[in-house]
Specification:
This protein is mostly helical. It has one domain. It has three helices and two strands, in the order ααββα. A two-stranded antiparallel sheet has the order 1-2. The longest helix has 15 residues. The protein is globular. 20% of the residues are buried. Bound molecules: zinc ion. The site of zinc ion has 8 residues, from helix 3.
């Protein structure tokens, strides 16, 4: 099940397309979609040694906007809110 991962990474997709992909991805993956990676950075290290999304790069912004657009509660952890 790698298609949603590949598509979410593609920078040429506009917000509308990302939203559609997220909606379909969520229907297929459920909460596992929050384990996908969109951030252009290598991630921000947390105190627990985990990597989380920066929350401020173009890709993170598109991701957040897309979840809002399709009314899915975004459970992704972002370093910046
Ligand atoms: Zn980011």
């Amino acid at each position: 099940m790698c298609a949603p991962y590949a598509i979410i990474f593609a920078p040429i997709f506009i917000a509308q397309a990302v939203a559609i992909v997220i909606k379909i991805g969520y229907e297929i993956l459920g909460d596992k979609i929050f384990e996908t990676w969109s951030c252009y950075s290598n991630g921000i290290d947390t105190k627990d040694g985990e990597k989380i999304h920066c929350g401020i790069c173009e890709s993170c912004i598109n991701r957040r906007r897309a979840f809002r657009k399709v009314s899915i509660d975004d459970k992704t952890e972002y370093a910046n809110h």
